[in-house]
């Protein structure tokens, strides 16, 4: 959802999350939310400073 000033608003409870693509952590290529949508629950955890 986009606000009048062009920024995206946060996802509200019950709304589907927007699709995104990230580099795969333990394999080559990328991982996208759409690749898992409808197949199983997905937990996205973003950790800063772990490397």
Average residue pLDDT: 81
- Order of strands across the biggest sheet? 1-2
Straight-line distance between termini: 33 Å
The topology string of helices and strands comes to: EE
Computed CA radius of gyration, to the nearest angstrom: 14 Å
- The gross shape turns out to be extended
Largest sheet: 2 strands, antiparallel
Helix content: under 10%
Low-confidence stretches: none
Using DSSP, what is the number of strands? 2
Counting helices, strands and paired strands, the structural category is little secondary structure
Q: What portion of residues belong to β-strands?
A: 5-15%
Number of DSSP helical runs: 0
Notes on the protein architecture:
The chain is low in regular secondary structure and 51 residues long. The protein has a domain at 21-51. 0% of the residues lie in helices and 12% in strands. The protein contains no helices and two strands. The chain has strands spanning 21-23, 30-32. The chain has a two-stranded antiparallel sheet with strand order 1-2. Strand 1 and strand 2 form a beta hairpin. The model has no long low-confidence stretch (mean pLDDT 81).
